[in-house]
Amino acid sequence: MSAAELGVENLTVAAGARRLVREVSLTAAPGETIGLIGPNGSGKSSLLRAVYRVLRPEAGRVLVDGADAWSVPVRRLARTLAAVVQEPGGDLDLTVREVVAMGRTPHKRLLDGDGPDDTRLVEESLALVDAAELADRPFDRLSGGERQRVLIARALTQQPALLVLDEPTNHLDVRHQLAVLGLLRRVPTTVLVALHDLNLAACHCDRLYVLKDGEVVAAGPPRQVLTARLLAEVYGVAGEVTLHPRTGAPHVVFLPEGTTPSVRAGARAGAEAGGDRPPVRVRGPRGGCPSREGT
Ligand SMILES: Nc1ncnc2c1ncn2[C@@H]1O[C@H](COP(=O)(O)OP(=O)(O)OP(=O)(O)O)[C@@H](O)[C@H]1O
């Protein structure tokens, strides 16, 4: 697997007269994990759909290693980009192993069977998402979380240089959430992932882009982006953000409606964005959040 460079340039996505994504630009360097966060309806899925070539943009470009994703042949794009999406794929009368093997399709010629390398990749991918024991089960009868892991295995089997995922932790229990996001950190590919869980995003992403009403309202490393002010302005909730002493990542605690955030916590969160308090001391790289191998 290699890693692609992603460039989204002034992308606007519309449905009829409605603009779902408005002049969004973002970049992902090869190997980066980029998180897309924002409230319901802020345009995350629409942006991802334009990147993985399902929703044609009204304006702007999606560049994968410099090539326009909407101009290259679909098959070529599928050898570079894999997507794990929320749309139900319809009933698939296939076993889990067969579904995962579909990830090899872009790399094969018409009527090619599965070679030993294909078979090995399928088994390896299933093992990576802790789904080896599901291989012979009918895909249609899996639980939501099992399906999700199998679809991630299919994407890994595709050996993409760019992996686009829309809420991949949906349906997953906490162990599998951590395992899947840890895995995404380890695969040597570029990752663009929409996430709702801000603490998972903080811990597993190199940089975050925050969408609101289809526009990017903040972008940068999690420590800069995730502040109490952002929670209030973008999500309309009160919360406190501290740097977790074990992981070194921002840690968000949401406060029930009617609670007044403490001044201390608010100041701590702001410190990372250039506020007036020194940052909380954190442990070094062994703190806890998974990092890229070799970094
Ligand atoms: N095909 C469509 N036609 C009209 N409106 C649409 C269409 N697809 C999405 N929308 C609207 O566009 C807005 C953005 O939707 P989108 O699914 O991109 O948001 P999201 O940030 O992924 O939301 P969520 O967090 O709820 O998944 C929403 O208001 C949604 O209702």
From TrEMBL:
Keywords: ATP-binding, Nucleotide-binding, Transport
Keyword flag Transferase: no
Residues making up the signal peptide according to the UniProt record: none
Annotated Pfam families: ABC_tran
Gene3D superfamilies assigned: P-loop containing nucleotide triphosphate hydrolases (3.40.50.300)
GO molecular function annotation: ATP binding; ATP hydrolysis activity
Domain of life: Bacteria
Residue intervals of the ABC transporter domain: 6-238
UniProt source species: Streptomyces taklimakanensis
Protein name: ATP-binding cassette domain-containing protein
CDD domains reported in the protein's UniProt record: ABC_Iron-Siderophores_B12_Hemin
InterPro entries from the UniProt entry: AAA+_ATPase, ABC_transporter-like_ATP-bd, ABC_transporter-like_CS, P-loop_NTPase
SMART domains, per database record: AAA
Chain segments carrying region Disordered: 263-295
